[in-house]
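Is this the right way to post structure tokens for a design question? Let me know if I should format differently. Anyway, here goes:
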């Protein structure tokens, strides 16, 4: 009797093993169970414009232009620059406008979602300065960080809503990649090796942003018709907002003015 019971037990274990011991597919038929590891989606293509409206304008600077100071670089860094380097916190252009102002749609896009661009944002260290000084990046979008200098830098990001990072890049040609998961305006980036190096990143979950350049202008294209809160941010003079309504195919204007007293 004991032998018969032992034989039955062995047969039962053999049957369980043949169907996948430890829990097989609930669908039966000997099919393997689905993996618990989520499938990694391929990077999405760059966002297509959602609409045909646009908002553009310029960033005026009132009062006397602020004189830029020379950056006191160490000899190692000075040797990398053919001309003396100037501070970048306040740059008043020749036409009386302000450079490096981050302009973006702050409100009005609720309910819309946008795929993450597959192209990275390039952020370089050249001549012991960050380039660009102010830039926008999408949530989840790759930031390709380069070191074009033949010496050590480090990248120290100091977000509040996102995970911070801090790492060294000791060699010319080094490349690293990072991204931010949560919208945040703005994220400070600094170099602990060279304390004069600083930059700012605006992290958004939509593509509607711009940075004023050498002419002080900005343009936000491909908007759907609607009413938006547009914000301009500057590292020295703070943020300003205005409401802008724009229809399909229309080009609205939203200009801002900054100055030493603002």
């Amino acid at each position: 009797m004991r032998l018969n019971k032992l034989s039955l037990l062995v047969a039962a274990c053999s049957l369980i093993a043949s169907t996948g011991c430890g829990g097989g597919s609930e669908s039966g038929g000997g099919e393997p169970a689905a993996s618990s590891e989520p499938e990694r989606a391929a990077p999405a293509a760059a966002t297509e414009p959602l609409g045909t409206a646009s908002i553009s304008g310029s960033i005026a600077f009132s009062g006397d232009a602020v004189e830029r100071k020379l950056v006191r670089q160490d000899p190692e860094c000075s040797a990398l620059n053919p001309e003396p380097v100037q501070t970048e916190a306040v740059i008043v252009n020749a036409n009386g406008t302000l450079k490096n102002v981050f302009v973006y749609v702050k409100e009005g896009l609720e309910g819309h979602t946008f795929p993450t661009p597959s192209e990275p944002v390039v952020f370089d260290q050249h001549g012991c300065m960050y380039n660009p000084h102010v830039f926008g990046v999408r949530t989840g979008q790759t930031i390709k960080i380069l070191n074009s200098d033949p010496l050590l830098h480090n990248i120290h990001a100091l977000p509040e809503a996102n995970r911070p990072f801090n790492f060294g890049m000791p060699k010319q040609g080094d490349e690293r990649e990072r991204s931010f998961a949560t919208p945040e305006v703005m994220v400070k980036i600094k170099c602990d090796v060279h304390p004069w190096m600083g930059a700012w990143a605006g992290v958004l979950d939509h593509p509607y942003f711009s940075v004023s350049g050498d002419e002080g202008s900005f343009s936000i294209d491909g908007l759907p018709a609607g009413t938006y809160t547009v914000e301009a941010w500057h590292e020295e003079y703070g943020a300003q907002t205005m409401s802008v309504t724009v229809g399909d195919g229309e080009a609205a204007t939203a200009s801002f003015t900054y100055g030493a007293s603002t």
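Format looks fine. Someone answered above. Worth noting: The chain is about 10% helix and 40% strand. The CA atoms of residues 61 and 96 lie 6 Å apart.
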